[in-house]
Amino acid sequence: MFKKISVFLAIFITGLFVYHGSYVSNAQNNETTIEKIVHTLNKQHVSLTEVSLYAREEVKAVTDQKTFYSQAKSIKSNFRGFKWEVKRERDLWKAIGTRKSEDVNEVILLTYAIDEHSNAYISYHVTGQGLKEKNMTHFQNVFQTNYEKIFLSEPIIFSCVTGEINDKMESVLSVEIQDLLRAFNAKPVESLVEESFTSVSAYTGLWKEALQTKKQEMNLQIALRKTRMGGQTTIVVGTPIITSEY
After folding, report:
1. Which domain of life is it from (predicted)?
2. Number of domains the chain is built from
């Protein structure tokens, strides 16, 4: 009887570990791209300062100034909670809608270029500052809700996370880049190395979105910049391209 109970407990405990491993694996697979970036950077003890999501698609309904104004009027009507401005900058018409809350900033931008191409685009950019990992759900819900309202197709979502590393050991940027590549299980494709700035384009299997470069697929960019004083390093991680400028 005792042996039967022991065998049963052994099977139960083994099953429990298998279930737990499967549960953790499924939970990780259900993470969005930006959640995976935030989670990975937190494990690397990066102090996050800003997260952002961005998407854009072509607006084929806009073919001239009249249809631009019509489209802008429709968007303004659908997003009354935004502050709107319509203006012309040389050969580019813009309708800009902005909304700011305590920790999330949103920008809807409709553009129409008056040139031989006459292309029109609409983009949606959301940034969050000082967000903790637990607040990411609200941030993503804000983005996803309007993403589904704004776009007719399902354009690629670009993710970008900015943070800081307090580097008391004054380690070399190339070493920190290698640590981050290992954390993302990524293989480098291209890199740029300077004294106080280093960036690398890489490919990781953590998410599917990718861009085809001349050499191979790329879906991760990491940039590090050393500040002159304080031994602080600014880090930006983006996928599939970094949407910030330095």
Report:
1. Bacteria
2. 1
Residue 3, domain member (yes or no) = no
Q: Distance from first CA to last CA of the chain, Å, rounded?
A: 70
Query: pTM of the entire structure?
Result: 0.81
pLDDT in tens, 157-187: 999 999 998 765 556 788 889 999 999 999 9
Instruction: Determine the Cα angle at 129 with ends 108 and 74, to 5°.
Output: 10
CATH of the domain at 59: 3.30.2030.10
The answer to whether the peptide bond before residue 155 is cis (omega within 30 degrees of 0) is no
CA distance 95 to 52: 21
Instruction: For residue 176, tell me if it sits in a domain.
Output: yes
Omega before 188 within 30 of 0, i.e. cis? no
Residue type for 13, please? Answer: I
- In angstroms, the CA 233 to CA 171 distance is 10
